[in-house]
Q: What sequence folds into this?
């Protein structure tokens, strides 16, 4: 969607609940592009709160979650999908009138449902920035994380269009390209572009590390043959990913079924020595890479620019 | 192994059969580190020969494969695994005495067998540099491709130790770390660290592009959620990979079976909502990434350094 992005920040006081990779990246980015905005933060972990304090990520670091949201006109829950219901319940008594409650979770239907149940009267606009790295924690964030990446908003049908536009403006100012989508469609699309790839990567890295026939030392030494690419996303946060698979279970299992069907086709081609089937398949997949680079969703440099 | 690398180039005249990514990278690297060495080259494709001529990759670009190897003391076949037998047969009448014949293929037992059958009297030392990018062709090569990467030699048991040491010296001079390994073990290790990851990546990229429920446009737009990582290796050369899967069929199918077993374990955990099983698995896979970075086999920068 087009953002009506003026020079004024769309919010005055933003509360970030959760100060890991995403929360701390939002904080850093806000500091850069909306320096007048007041930032409040909270994290359930005292250790993370201490590290966030050293990093001076926010103007007010709250010791209680309720304290963080008092007076805020935007609250963003930057926490694992499975913690949304509890967090929403905790902030409920402290929210002011007209505040927008949003999140950054990778599964939108279950989060929207959890937030709606905990906050029946609130202005809820779920969001998902398609951005991240394999690292976690407040030190891992950086201001440019959202630049050129997509952020998907999944407002309910009767959501206030003005509130949606303000949140879109906020993400646009952080550098993201904003899209509005139905929550169920988001969950299906992300099952393909994110959840299934992570499940496959977690699996194969586990398979390789469990082998008796090949030592872990060999797997690591010769990982540049392709394996190392999978280890990056298999190094992502375990709690975050446990919650995503449980929350988006149906779409993930559906996509997994399709993947297994295709894998069986290629397995049979290898078994029977059907080189043509393999060649045709591999020729088609090559074109997808080019489209992703063309659309600016990955670097054009060979080998992700690693070996140049 | 330790290389007895002196200042003298271990060979006088090297013939590169195949001038794609690997052949042209060897040529460029030789120019940099062994400028006195005479380079001869050939490619079965007239188009590739013309492009190699424009790039001035070699001193003598042969129009016939036999012409390229005349007088060479090292011949390296830089061609798809399935073309090795034919190429070896074509060069057989033109090889001089004492020449070492090597290759760069990703499956070593079948290549060793093909070369031995075509060249029963030759000094054959198969090799495999664990290096590459998703790009192909003579323009894709670069001098630093082998720097810090492993190159595995799989000589027969009765191979001349001096010849093995010379080839090891050659690869060491190109910047590679050299290891000697049994061919069968190589094929098992590479099935895990390279072949299975490629098969999985080819499959999932195909799965995503065949979906009716999600458009290809959406898959591309939101690929930064993880999918794009898979598209890189699924953009690799289709002929090269067709040949590898057919050549290393048994080890690939064995590893695929193990992967499918593990995937079924995680699928069941998602289906039954067993969060602990998922959390434990994802926590283990995180450590492998750290070991690969520690061993210098990948960059430490988050997101492969793409988003910084």
A:
């Amino acid at each position: 969607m087009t953002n009506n992005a003026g020079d004024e920040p769309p919010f005055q006081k933003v509360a970030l609940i959760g100060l890991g990779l995403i929360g701390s990246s939002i904080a850093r980015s806000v500091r850069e592009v909306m320096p007048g905005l007041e930032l409040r933060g909270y994290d359930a972990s005292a250790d993370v709160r201490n590290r966030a304090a050293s990093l001076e990520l926010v103007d007010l670091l709250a010791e209680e979650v309720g304290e963080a949201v008092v007076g805020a006109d935007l609250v963003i829950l930057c926490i694992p999908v499975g913690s949304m219901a509890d967090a929403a319940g905790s902030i409920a008594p402290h929210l002011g009138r007209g505040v927008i409650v949003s999140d950054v979770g990778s599964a939108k239907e279950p989060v929207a449902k959890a937030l709606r149940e905990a906050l029946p009267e609130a202005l809820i606009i779920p969001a998902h920035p398609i951005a991240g790295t394999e690292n976690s924690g407040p030190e891992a964030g950086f201001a440019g994380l959202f630049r050129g990446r997509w952020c998907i908003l999944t407002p309910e049908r009767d959501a206030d269009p003005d509130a949606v536009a303000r949140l879109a403006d906020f993400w646009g100012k952080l550098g993201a390209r904003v899209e509005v989508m139905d929550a169920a469609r988001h969950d299906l699309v992300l099952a393909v572009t994110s959840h299934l790839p992570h499940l496959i990567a977690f699996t194969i890295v586990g398979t390789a590390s469990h082998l008796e026939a090949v030592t872990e030392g060999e797997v690591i030494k010769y990982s540049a043959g392709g394996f190392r690419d999978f280890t990056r996303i298999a190094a992502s946060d375990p709690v975050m990913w446990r919650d995503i698979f449980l929350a988006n279970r149906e779409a993930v299992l559906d996509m997994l079924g399709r993947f297994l069907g295709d894998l069986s086709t290629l397995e049979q081609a290898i078994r029977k020595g059907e080189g043509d089937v393999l060649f045709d398949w591999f020729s088609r997949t090559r074109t997808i890479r080019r489209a992703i680079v063309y659309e600016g969703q990955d670097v054009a440099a060979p080998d992700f620019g690693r070996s140049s």
